[in-house]
């Protein structure tokens, strides 16, 4: 049982982790050890206090140096769902479950566009974690829409149980897939069915399927955490970064504009301090 679990390793998540460490709380941060690749695209940064005129790559290097000095380790595992369990949170990571007294969401805004029919059939044949739900499709046909290489491992796992697996890659590369998996290089347009999913309609073809798993780099907050209040496309918070769910906080781009690193870092700081205050109240 951790005091705090932080989801996201951009400036908001890292700032939250730093402050959790300073306050001597047990925590775990999930994200990418390469930190924010968007920083690499910035030739010059002039609006981050104390870092005038340096490149995005140089700032990223400073971030890495800071967390390394504080011995903060980023866990590179994909969080599929977060459930509020009353007095704690269950964080689902494939077959594993982590528990924490508080959660800080710092997931950014790269969720991807929904397919037509995706929301309608969520839980009715559409899912986001193939390794979690694969047993439900034993002897059936499954389609995986993949936005990253991590989906290859999930597809290989599913093919051990399913009768047939189709793989629709939305990225380029050499695919490390079981020879029984059919690779469909076409653009998905719509998910259709009746009470449950029946078909994936692509730009130039159609697939009859019993289930569809969509593996994106990250989920939208509303899909990641049931019951979370969303305003527009962002998580609703107050000035203490508190969400509508007690013990859950959010910071960074996922709570709204402006999408700037200095803002995100400040919000991560507030979120961690608010989580610490919350922990002191319940302990």
UniProtKB/TrEMBL annotation:
Keyword match Flavoprotein: yes
Stretches assigned to the FAD/NAD(P)-binding domain: 2-142, 226-268
Keywords per UniProt: Flavoprotein, Oxidoreductase
GO molecular function, one term: oxidoreductase activity
Gene3D superfamilies: FAD/NAD(P)-binding domain
InterPro entries tied to this protein: FAD/NAD-bd_sf, FAD/NAD-binding_dom, Ferredoxin-NADP_redctase_2
Signal peptide (from-to): none
Descriptive protein name: Thioredoxin reductase
Keyword Transmembrane in annotation: no
UniProt xrefs under SUPFAM superfamilies: FAD/NAD(P)-binding domain
Taxonomic classification: Bacteria, Bacillati, Bacillota, Clostridia, Eubacteriales
PANTHER family the record matches: THIOREDOXIN REDUCTASE 1-RELATED-RELATED
Top-level taxon: Bacteria
A Pfam family per the record: Pyr_redox_2
């Amino acid at each position: 049982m951790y005091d705090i679990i932080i989801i996201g390793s951009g400036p908001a998540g890292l700032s939250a982790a730093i402050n959790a460490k300073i306050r001597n709380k047990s925590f775990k941060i999930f994200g990418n050890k390469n930190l924010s690749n968007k920083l690499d695209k910035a030739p010059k940064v002039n609006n981050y206090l104390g870092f005038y005129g340096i490149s995005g790559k140089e700032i990223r290097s400073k971030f890495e140096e800071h967390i390394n000095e504080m011995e903060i380790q980023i866990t590179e595992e994909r969080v599929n769902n977060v459930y509020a369990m009353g007095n704690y949170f269950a964080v689902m990571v494939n077959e594993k479950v982590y528990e924490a007294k508080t959660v800080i969401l710092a997931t950014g805004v790269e969720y991807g566009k929904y397919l037509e029919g995706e929301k309608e059939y969520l839980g009715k044949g559409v899912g986001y974690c193939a390794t979690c739900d694969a047993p439900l499709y034993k002897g059936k046909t499954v389609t995986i829409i993949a936005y990253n290489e991590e989906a290859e491992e999930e597809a290989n796992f599913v093919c051990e149980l399913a009768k047939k697996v189709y793989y629709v890659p939305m990225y380029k590369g050499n695919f490390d897939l079981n020879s029984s998996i059919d690779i469909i290089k076409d653009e998905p347009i719509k998910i259709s069915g009746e009470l449950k999913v029946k078909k994936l309609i692509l730009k130039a073809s159609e697939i009859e399927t019993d289930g569809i798993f969509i593996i994106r780099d990250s989920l939208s907050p509303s899909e990641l955490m049931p019951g979370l209040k969303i305003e527009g496309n962002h998580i609703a918070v107050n000035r203490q970064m508190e969400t509508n769910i007690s013990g859950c906080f959010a910071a960074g781009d996922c709570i709204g504009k402006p999408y700037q690193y200095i803002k995100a870092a400040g919000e991560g700081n507030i979120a961690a301090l608010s989580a610490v205050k919350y922990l002191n109240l319940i302990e």
